[in-house]
Design a protein that fits this description.
alpha+beta, single chain, about 80 residues, three-stranded antiparallel beta sheet, 4 helices
């Protein structure tokens, strides 16, 4: 992974979410239910702010091996 990409991932995902109680420690989830779908939206919005326009295609969040959410900026798609 390129250094720039790692920095974006660190800022958009790891810093706000890693080792956090989403409902208590992340202000976004004080107003939004912390479902896997909403976590994908949160990550999308954070990455979108950092990446060059048009480079973000999708966010894929694995809750389990069988429950995966893909978000492409408009709607969440559950993959089972």
């Amino acid at each position: 992974m390129a250094d720039g990409t790692s920095l974006f991932l660190q800022q958009a995902i790891m810093e706000p979410l890693d080792h956090k109680n989403l409902d208590k420690d992340v202000p976004y989830f004080a107003e939004v239910v912390s479902t896997t779908e909403n976590v994908a939206v949160f990550i999308w919005e954070n990455l979108k702010k950092l990446l060059p326009m048009g480079t973000l295609y999708k966010v894929k969040v694995y809750e389990t091996d069988q429950n995966i959410v893909v978000y492409k900026g408009e709607e969440a798609i559950s993959e089972k």
